[in-house]
């Protein structure tokens, strides 16, 4: 029987014995999980779920010792004799590296490894965790100092608060970093210049490589994220299917403008043979090609232009958000800020030109 099977059996025995303690794997070691009294110095008023690190390796011999310890802790809790003093050297001296290793193991136990989860782990969690002094003991003060070293009211500060806050919760560290998050939102980002559609069409013709010209045309016509180019199903054209493996999994997109499907030759496009370890690497290759061909805007500007164009076409915001693969709230906060006065004027004139518009009494 493999180790996972042995662990399930051990926890089953503990449940049947009403021990109130379970065994978990944290990195390459074992720990206990139970409702324990607050640690000395904690602001918690009563017992809550915590981990108790034993130092035993995650192997059959270590599992046998962990099960014995779980029963002993269960008896101590029943007799109200549990004391953190008996375990002072098991959790308090674990280094930052130890905790990050354990957190990563737990993270991918609850999530399947995929390009999406790997990107989230690397770009969100690991970027924040890498700023911690790896050899030091993990404490609330250390986490707070790392957060305070970032610039206030920025995306980085918000990300550090979120990621290091989750690490603190995982390590049973009593800390609340929410007051440090500040007032960052996407609305604070510098205004983006969305290229006019005529300019977008003009630059399609200037790209000399047919494969990258087709990639550009797809992004302009369907508002794709960079990496989504490599997760496409063309079987329903002119409706484009974005498959599982992209950031937001499966969704379908309609062309805006539909004429560009024929004009850009998108029914028979041959995409460039790109490879990458994850979505971020694929996306970076797309950005580099835009720079190589001298395109005066970045790939995401094509996505922003599609979002603004969807409004001019009268596509309901709920449908536009679904086709872009995100929520209505994200759609409005992220893209509606780039709607120019000219777009508002055109939309108003089109409304007033409708034969069935309401007439003043």
From TrEMBL:
One of its GO terms (molecular function) is DNA binding. One of its GO terms (biological process) is DNA integration. Residues 194-349 form the Tyr recombinase domain. This is Integrase. The keyword Oxidoreductase does not apply. InterPro entries: DNA_brk_join_enz, Integrase-like_cat_sf, Integrase_catalytic. Keywords: DNA recombination. It comes from Shackletoniella antarctica.
């Amino acid at each position: 029987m493999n180790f996972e099977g042995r662990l399930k059996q051990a926890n089953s025995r503990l449940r049947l014995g009403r021990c109130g303690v379970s065994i978990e794997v944290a990195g390459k070691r074992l720990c206990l999980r139970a409702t324990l009294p607050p640690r000395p110095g904690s602001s918690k008023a009563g017992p809550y779920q915590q981990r108790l690190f034993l130092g035993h390796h995650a192997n059959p011999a270590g599992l046998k010792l962990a099960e014995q310890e779980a029963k002993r802790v269960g008896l101590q809790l029943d007799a109200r004799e549990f004391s953190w003093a008996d375990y002072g050297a098991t959790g308090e001296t674990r280094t930052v590296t130890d905790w990050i290793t354990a957190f990563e193991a737990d993270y991918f136990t609850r999530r399947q490894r995929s390009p999406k989860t790997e990107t989230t782990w690397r770009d969100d969690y690991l970027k924040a965790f890498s700023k911690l002094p790896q050899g030091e003991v993990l404490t609330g003060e250390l986490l707070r100092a790392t957060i305070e070293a970032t610039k206030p009211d920025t995306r980085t500060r918000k990300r550090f608060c979120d990621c290091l806050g989750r690490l603190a919760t995982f390590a049973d560290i009593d800390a609340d970093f929410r007051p440090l998050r500040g007032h960052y939102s996407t609305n604070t980002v510098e205004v983006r210049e969305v290229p006019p559609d005529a300019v977008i069409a003009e630059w399609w013709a200037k790209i000399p490589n047919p494969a990258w010209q087709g990639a550009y045309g797809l992004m302009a016509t369907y508002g794709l994220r960079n990496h989504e180019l490599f997760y496409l199903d063309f079987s329903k054209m002119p409706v484009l299917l974005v498959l599982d493996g992209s950031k937001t999994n499966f969704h379908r997109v309609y062309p805006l403008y539909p004429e560009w499907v024929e004009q850009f030759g998108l029914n028979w496009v041959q995409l460039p043979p790109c490879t990458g370890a994850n979505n971020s690497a694929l996306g970076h290759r797309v950005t580099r090609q835009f720079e190589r061909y001298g395109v005066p805007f970045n790939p995401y500007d094509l996505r922003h232009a599609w979002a603004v164009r969807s409004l001019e076409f009268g596509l309901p915001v709920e449908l536009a958000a679904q086709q872009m693969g995100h929520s209505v709230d994200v759609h409005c906060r992220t893209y509606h800020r780039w709607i120019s006065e000219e777009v508002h004027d055109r939309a108003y004139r089109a409304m007033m030109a409708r034969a069935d518009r309401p007439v003043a009494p």
